[in-house]
Design brief:
The complex is a heterodimer. Chain A is of the alpha/beta class. The relative contact order of chain B is 0.18. Classes of the chains: A alpha/beta, B alpha/beta.
Chain lengths: 435, 450
């Protein structure tokens, strides 16, 4: 029996470069940069003082007043998720599609945790701290915290809330999952959702991710790891994947959502088909908590598993959307892994990282990057890696430097690698009858 | 497509009543309670001052010697997961890298790491408040007039943050549970971290079931772990108004699943990790098989994102899907493991779901509930429950639900309480749901037959 095929019939995103699918795509192709000085909080004394923020966002622009009332108090990242899901839903022309079987329509997100209520949290911590003996008086802390912290803000920090909100907004009763495998989360979510549809556990899934770590403790955490670029004097050029002078990633925020649909189901309702998701690979480095395996073992295994799952060979790949964070280690080892996978063809297959323009959306990164792959297939044009100026001997592939490239694109591979050695790869291809 | 059969060959549990599945199960059968006044910190100003705590574990006993240093960057949730993982692989008699390196087993690693996966549910891991508060306090301005005192973000960015260890963030990423477990035991196959509150374990186990079923791995260590026994975890649950507040002086009677007098949940901590294995693989290595996993279903059960549906519609749908997946009807099920967290709303919703799926039998099929003894263990809850349920099948005994004295007639379930009862159940169901967010899932197990 041939297995059920899974296609993408709708897409939506909220990104530092915009929220309209086409306009944002044009900005990416025009090599625009969404990075600027951080405004969400005053980061002027932080090692990193810039980020890729979603600007001028109001959830009420995307949902009805009734819906807004119902979901009042959602976290920043869940509001990105709801807005992106609304856009994807409309894009897939699901409004008024009366025949949907909601028990076979699920949600699988790579949703991040909601931002901590930092000001109140910090106040309670300081109030509760006993400087005399350097301990926390939990009694005093509890008194202050119970006054300051608010139920909804705390509840909204659970990473599964966005998936719950989306299910409620659209009345979706199918399987409802959230994964949080760090920077790999939404690629993983889409892969697992694809497997659910293939197996027949669902006919449709809203899948993608959402995250915002642009808050004091998020930036603190990454700054302490020395994972972020500190190019404060030139933030527009700070995200420079694969460039020799790269010094870390740039934190972004946002959401990307895709409507995944079983092929026959999509055809029966006359849906527009963007592309087909054909392969998924997930592996663990099982190496160290801090470092990627030096041979790229886990990344290689994720890419080869995804190709095998797609029934494809490296010859079939026209473009790779790299994880390409702009950290020294990731870009070097990812390059190594790609070369191992592609062999002789490595230098002929373009590889780029849109993180150079929209920053690293962490849990939401993979979904937004898959959307760019699908648009690349549709338009036969590749997004560039901007800020590429100094070739690095360790990074010697064709990174589509600084300018978009028009070229036939049929099949793309999209990588996401997370802290802790979590590796996920998706393969997406131009839809064709008969596969 | 030919689906592979998936069996359970190892159980690991770290709970407030015992470390190890045998210790946990025996304690439950004997009606012992793991809930007491909180020891981890002074809970004096919290409305609920009790919890199910795991009091005596040393994670260094569960990792190879060379990995002891890494235990310094393990949040409590990770410690629980790594400990349960050790017990699970040992119970399954798998010669993993950890057990070989520690000298716990003779010979060499006998598992292909590229066919050994992990799928571990995790919660929103709370930062160690002592560590973080100390660092934050270092950024407070204490010199000026009292009115100006307080936390200074400016000072935090300039110097305060440097009081956190460079690896600070890595203690609290949810996927660090799976990260440490996969490193310690060398699991390189598909890996995932499900973060759906109290439904996490069931969803993780269900997904691992599918992974093996389609041939993407031979073995998967799966389940979940979480601790809410810290000031922030307890505060969050307190604010949500779900906790028992009338039993601070009587903690062992506090949580009363499905009881007519139940007044809320009790926070807990714990881990459950289960070894799922492809049937032929298990047979080939002569593994002892506890049970076969035969069905899985998932849905959402939320009327509002913080409240369950009164009629339990979503949870019923998850159960029906699991039954259909297993190819059996509700009439075949002879034991139900329910979450039974002890709140008015969640227990009523779950009971309504069971009644709607099981019809008249809903009031007679024995129900196994554990929370009266161990509290709600967050993302670890479901796998602990599942491990206990598998033991009940294995031993032929259903442990009673502690503190369920008079089952709420509005729940209308046959919750096993008082004394344990004998059972030869062949088909068994286990279900769980996230308290916030609504995710819900069910699995169907079968006594293993050739």
């Amino acid at each position: 029996m041939s297995r059920r095929r899974v296609v993408v019939t709708g897409m939506g995103w909220i990104t530092p470069l915009g929220r309209d699918l086409e306009a944002t795509w044009q900005r990416i192709l025009n090599a625009d940069c969404g990075i600027a000085e951080t405004t969400i909080f005053d980061a002027r004394t932080f090692p990193t003082q810039f980020s890729a923020e979603v600007k001028d966002f109001a959830l009420s622009d995307f949902i009805s007043p009734e819906e807004y009332e119902l979901h009042k108090g959602v976290s920043r990242q869940a509001s990105f998720a709801l807005a992106a899901a609304k856009l994807a839903w409309a894009d897939a022309k699901l409004d008024g599609a009366a025949t949907l079987n909601k028990s076979m329509f699920g949600v699988y997100l790579g949703g991040g945790e909601g931002p901590l209520d930092f000001d109140h949290f910090a106040t309670a911590a300081v109030e509760g701290w006993k400087y005399e003996d350097n301990t926390l008086d939990t009694r005093r802390w509890a008194e202050v915290a119970s006054e300051l912290l608010r139920k909804i803000v705390e509840a909204e920090q659970d990473p599964n809330m966005a998936a719950g909100h989306i299910a409620q907004m659209f009345g979706l009763e199918g399987p409802n999952f959230n994964t949080l495998t760090a920077c790999a989360a939404s690629t993983q979510a889409i892969g697992e959702a694809m497997n659910m549809i293939r197996r027949g556990d669902a006919d449709m899934m809203i899948s993608g991710g959402c995250h915002s770590m642009i808050h004091p403790l998020g930036v603190t955490g990454f700054n302490r790891l020395t994972a972020l670029s500190t190019r404060n004097d030139s933030c527009k050029t700070a995200s420079r994947p694969f460039d020799r002078t790269r010094d870390g990633f740039v934190l972004g925020e946002g959401a990307g959502m895709l409507i995944l649909e079983e092929l026959e189901h999509a055809k029966a309702r006359g849906a527009r088909i963007y592309a087909e998701v054909v392969g998924f690979g997930s592996t663990a480095d099982a190496f160290r908590i801090t470092d990627i395996h030096e041979d790229g073992r886990g990344g290689i295994a994720a890419m080869s598993t995804a190709l095998a799952d797609a029934g494809m060979t490296p010859q079939d790949i026209h473009y790779i959307s790299a994880h390409g964070t702009g950290t020294k280690e990731n870009d070097k080892i990812e390059t190594l892994a790609i070369k191992r996978i592609l062999g002789d063809r490595a230098k002929n297959v373009p590889v780029s990282s849109v993180k150079s323009m929209m920053g690293h959306l962490i849990a939401a990164a993979g979904a937004c990057e898959l959307i760019t792959c699908i648009l690349a297939i549709r338009d036969n044009v590749l997004p560039p890696t901007i800020n590429y100026e100094h070739p690095d001997p360790d990074c010697d592939l064709d990174y589509v430097p600084n300018k978009k490239r028009e070229t036939p694109v049929h099949t793309c591979l999209s990588n996401s690698f997370g802290f802790g050695g979590q590796n996920d790869t998706l393969v997406v291809t131009e839809f064709a009858e008969g596969g | 497509m030919n689906r592979k059969r998936v069996v359970i060959t190892g159980l690991g549990a770290v709970t407030p009543v015992g470390v190890g599945i045998t210790e946990t199960f025996d304690a439950l059968v004997e009606n012992r309670c793991g809930i007491g006044r909180i020891q981890a910190f002074d809970p004096g100003r919290f409305t609920s001052q009790i919890a199910g705590e795991v009091l005596e574990i040393n994670v260094k006993d569960s990792v190879p010697k060379g990995y002891r240093k890494a235990t310094k960057v393990m949040a409590r949730d990770i410690v629980l997961a790594v400990t349960a993982a050790y017990h699970a692989v040992k119970d399954a008699k798998l010669k993993t890298r950890c057990l070989v390196d520690r000298g716990d087993v003779e010979g060499e690693v006998d598992i292909d790491p590229t066919r050994f996966g992990a799928n571990i549910g995790a919660g929103l891991i709370c930062a160690d408040l002592n560590e973080l508060a100390g660092a934050l306090a270092s950024a407070a301005d204490r010199r000026d007039a009292p009115a100006d005192r307080g936390f200074s973000l400016e000072k935090w960015g300039r110097e305060g943050m440097n009081n956190l260890t460079p690896l600070w963030l890595l203690k609290f990423l949810p996927n660090m549970l799976a990260c440490h477990v996969t490193i310690v035991h060398d699991c390189q196959a598909p890996s995932n971290t499900i973060t759906c509150g109290e439904a996490s374990s069931h969803l993780a186990i269900g997904e691992a079931f599918r992974t093996i079923e389609r041939g993407a791995a031979d073995i998967c260590i799966c389940g979940g772990a979480e601790s809410k026994v810290n000031p922030m975890g307890l505060m969050r649950q307190s604010l949500l108004g779900r906790l028992v507040t009338d039993s601070n002086d009587n903690p062992t009677r506090a949580c009363r699943p499905f009881d007519v007098d139940r007044t809320g949940a009790v926070v807990g901590e714990g881990a459950g990790l289960i070894i799922l294995e492809e049937y032929e693989h298990a047979k080939a290595r002569g593994a002892a098989i506890y049970a076969e996993l035969v069905g899985f279903g998932a849905s959402v059960n939320a009327s509002h994102w913080l409240e369950p549906q009164a009629d339990g519609r979503g949870q019923a749908l998850a159960m029906s899907k699991a039954l259909a997946d297993a190819g059996v009807s509700a009439d075949d099920i002879e034991l139900i493991n329910a979450a039974g967290v002890g709140t008015k709303a969640h227990d009523a919703s779950e009971a309504a779901a069971i009644r709607s799926v099981f019809g008249q039998r809903g009031s007679t099929v024995p129900v196994l509930a554990t929370k009266g003894a161990i509290g709600v263990n967050g993302a670890g809850s479901g796998a602990i429950d599942l491990a206990v349920t598998v033991m009940a099948m294995h031993r032929g005994v259903i442990p009673p639900s502690l503190n369920t004295n008079q089952v709420d007639p509005e729940c209308g379930l046959n919750v096993v309480h008082g004394d344990p009862i004998d059972s030869r159940a062949e088909w068994v169901m286990s279900t769980a749901g996230a308290l916030s967010g609504g995710q819900t899932a069910a699995v169907v197990l079968r006594r293993c037959v050739e």
